[in-house]
Structures are given as C-alpha cells and as structure tokens.
Amino acid sequence: MCGIIGILGNAPAAPRLVEALKRLEYRGYDSAGVATLENGAIKRRRAAGKLANLERVLAEEPLAGVTGIGHTRWATHGAPTTGNAHPHATDKVAIVHNGIIENFRALREELKNAGRKFSSETDSEVIAHLITHYLDKGQSPEQAAIAAVRRLEGAFGIAVLFAGEEVVLIGARKGSPLAVGLGDGEMFLGSDAIAVSPFTTRVMFLDEGDIAVLSRTSVKVLDADGKQVERKVHIFAGGVAAVEKGNHRHFMQKEIYEQPETVGRTITRYVNAFEERIEMPDFGGVDLNAESAVIIGCGTAHYAGRVAEYWLEQIAGISVETDIASEFRYRKPAFGKSAFSVFVSQSGETADTLAALRYCKDNGLKTLAVVNVPESTIWREADARLPTLAGPEIGVASTKAFTAQLSALAALAIAVGRARGTLSSDDERRLVRTLMEAPRLIAEALGAEPEIEKIAQELSHARDVLYLGRGVHYPIALEGALKLKEISYIHAEGYAAGELKHGPIALIDEATPVVVVAPHDALFEKTLSNMQEVNARGGKLIVITDAAGAAAVSEIAQHIILAPACDPFVAPLVYSIPIQLLAYFTAVHKGTDVDQPRNLAKSVTVE
Ligand code: F6R
Q1: What is the distance in A from the centroid of ligand 1 to the CA of 323?
Q2: Band of the pLDDT at 241, cuts 50, 70, 90?
C-alpha cells in the first residue's frame, strides 16, 4: 500500500521526491523518508508520522543530489517508527518497497548468519541486504537486483538506488504496481502514474514479474523470464491539478460537494440523453444476457455492489451474488452456466479485488471493472470497463467515488434489464430520466448541511451509534456506519432494520443514537415499526427522510434530516449525501484528522 518514487534526474532530487510523496500520501502516511546520492554516497532522511515531519527534518538537514528514492509508509511489519521508515539501506544500496515479503524471516536468518546486521523490524530491509550480498559477490547492480528479486516471495514493488551509480535506478514488481515515467533526459519510478505526474505525462506500466533498469535516457525492461521486452507508453494527463482543497477545509468536504458534478459526469457517460437510453461502451465479450452475476469489492466499493444487487434483481431479474473480495477469493465459489463478474474499485489496485478478478478469469468468467483510476491494474486486467468519472479522490474516506460507482452500476442495471428483455423501452426511458435527476437531487440534499452540522455536534459525544436501513438502504446504512467509524473513531454498526429484533435491539439505550435511513417508499411503514421499537426502549432516533416521512416520524424522532423526495431508483444516490455529511461533521467536531484518519490508507495493495 505504501507510495514509492524514484528519480534519476537533472535537478535537486529531495524537493522533487517530497513533491511526489505529497501525491502518494493517500497510500499510507505513518512515516516517510527519502535517500539521495551525494557525491555517490547514499544519504537518508526519515521521519515517523506525516510527511510534514520529514519536511521539517529536511529543512534542518537538507539533502543534495539529483538521484534519489522516496517512500510514504503504511506499516505492515514493524511499528511506524523512524527506524522502520523507508528507505532501508546498507552502505551500497537503498531500497523502497511496497508490499509484503512473505519469506523475509528465512532470508533475514540466512543473511544474519552471513554476517549482515539489521536495524529495523521490517520485512523490507532484507531486500537491501540481499542485493548487497550479491554485489559483494562481484555482481553488477543489474545482476544483483535480478538475483535478489528472484529470491523474494510475496508481493512487491521496489525501487533500488546504488551507491556510486549516478546513472542507474532499478525497479521491480510482482503483485504490487510500479510505473516508469519517461522524462526529457530524466527517468522516474512510481508506485502509480500519479507519483510521476509532476515530472512527466509519459508513463509505462510494468507487468507482473518485470524488472526495469533505468538510465537517464533509456529503460530496459526484463520480463519474469529475464527476456528483454517492450511495454507500451501511455500518455497520462491526470493527477496534477486535482490535489488542491480550494475553499474547503478538507478534501473530504470538497469531494462531498463535488458530487452533483461527478455523478452528472458519470451518468452522462452512459446515457444518450436525446434518446433517453443507456449506451454502454464495448463490453469485450461480456454477455449481459447471462443467468447470473457476481459483484465483488471491498469496503465502500462492496456496499456500492450491494446496492447494485437490489437494482439488478429488481430491474433485470438476474440472480446476483455480492461478496467481499477477501472472502470471495478463498471461498472457491462455483458459478452457473452463464455468468459475468463485476469488480468495483476506486483505486483499481485493491489486492483482494484484483485477486478475485483473476480467480473469475481463471474460472472462465468475463470480467467487468467499475473503476475510477484509469490504467490501474484492475482497469487493465478486466475484459471490459465502466469508468467512474469521479476524478482523483484524495480524502481517505470514499465519498464521490461511491456515488460515481452507484451511477455506473445504475446504468449497468438498466443495460442488463434491456439485454435480458425485462425492461420495455418506456421503462428504460423512465429510469434514464429518473437517473438524470440525480445530480439536481444531490445538490438539494447538500442543503441539509446546517441541520446536519448541529446534529453532528451531539453525535460526536456518542460512544456507539447504530445505523438502520431496509432494502436498497440497508447497504447505505452499512456505508453510513463505515464512514462514521473510519473518520470519527466512534463505534458504529449498520443493520437491516428488520434484523434489529434478532439481537441488536439489546444495544438500545439512551446513550446509543440510532440513525435511520428511511425515505417514504414502499418499505417505509415496516421501518417505521422498527423505529417505534427503538423509541419504546428509550433510543434516540436520527431519521433521514423526506417530507412525507418526516410527518410520520415527527413524534418519535429526536432529529430529522430532510432529504428531497425522489424516485426510489435514485434514492441510494441521494441518501448517500446526508450520511457522508453526518460522518464528516461529527469527525470535525471531534477534531480528528478527517482526510487521513489513523491506521488507514487510501489504496489497499496488500492482502
Ligand atoms: C472507505 C473506503 C474503503 C475502500 C476500500 C476499497 O471509505 O474508502 O473501504 O472503499 O478499501 O478500495 P477501492 O475502491 O480502491 O478498491
């Protein structure tokens, strides 16, 4: 999950490394470090905590040199201390690593027995010692890197800097992504295209098992068999401009407010507004007229899939299975005769989702990716893709990516309905018209901010919060609970409203607020009964509903958050807004680090 940057440049490296790391903090932010070559010698600066701490260290003790590597860490092995921060180095080599080296214990033992001294608790440090071990045997940097990489088991993207070698930088990947940026007389390595975007728009993505040997003017790529290969150069124009907060206090707030636009952009990608029809891109052989579909994702992306399950079943009459990628990949799931699979991911790099996609491919299923980051691994490996056009999402808690996923999946549900003949043209037109109202309704829902901010102040004192929803709003309740816990650190659980009496009702007391997502739809009366049950037990209800629902709950709700009345089809998109704002303002009242909550990372590239 960590962020990697490598620079073989012509300008001072340290400020450029920090510049790139700022764009990579979304991959982890519990420590950071850089190493450069000063007159051929490896010099390092590292700091625990946010990048700002490393910047302070560099201000006090600057680093010279035009060649270097940098890293922002999300700890797996070893606490987030300065000593465990990357780069890890010997006198001959410095490395930065993203991933997990599974056989690090055996390698560490072997290298210790050979007299090498370790100074960190990380799995990564073995890479530096292993390469040094081969250099000590007289191998060239390229030979030593290849020999070491061959012995590594697990997942890695690495960049290697060699003492005395101003003209070589080596990168290798297996399981974790790595990109090469091709500059003008300069070369770069990055854990993704965003890392190298401040320096170049020409990007080459390494394949599984590739090793890249960089000079300032050339890239030699060796594949897993050691054969020299060519990899395509892409022009990547994204990533540079989008990392400003504008007038907003946090990226998350900015991203919540962008949703009328990002949802609109995503919907229009799939809608022919003139004919009121869905127009899908080339599906690369994915047959939407299948008997069943599987939808896989993690966290928020999984909840988007859960909403889509209701849509696909109700609109297209197709049997749908949704699962969390980390469970799915080890379940050995079986598939019916004709099925397609859908993978939902903002980053397109989530390790479990990628593994699930590969499992489906290996089992003969066509794969369709709903992905936000173009050219990410899931994007590239899927048979077909439905891009979400949310733009770069910087806040660690996903907001605009979620509603963009819902937008693309809503369009998919209509397309599947048409392919399976369950939707008439008139029905399709009605649904498309409804979907096109979503941006306006989302803008209206944002208008509840002042009320939500007040409620959030009270909620910030809670220790536990329950979220309830029924039908398509059950996954929205799950998403609401996830949002609250990840940024405010308040314990929250989402339940299907009807499940309350099967256990969770025991938790109800005056100190446990219950947030209910309940538009006045066909299931409202059922959810109202559940609200009565909460009220009867002294529970405090915060009800997110429309005007008709508000009239029905005015006697029992402690607080009402008003959402615009809308068609049930787009309600999940609209009701996502209040749950996001509620989590956001609760976290602001608690004073947590909203954009970079503790222990989390934006892109989860390890299992
Ligand atoms: C929650 C959140 C995570 C991600 C999950 C999947 O706010 O952001 O739960 O949704 O880690 O990430 P992607 O979508 O990048 O596969």
Answers
A1: 14
A2: very low
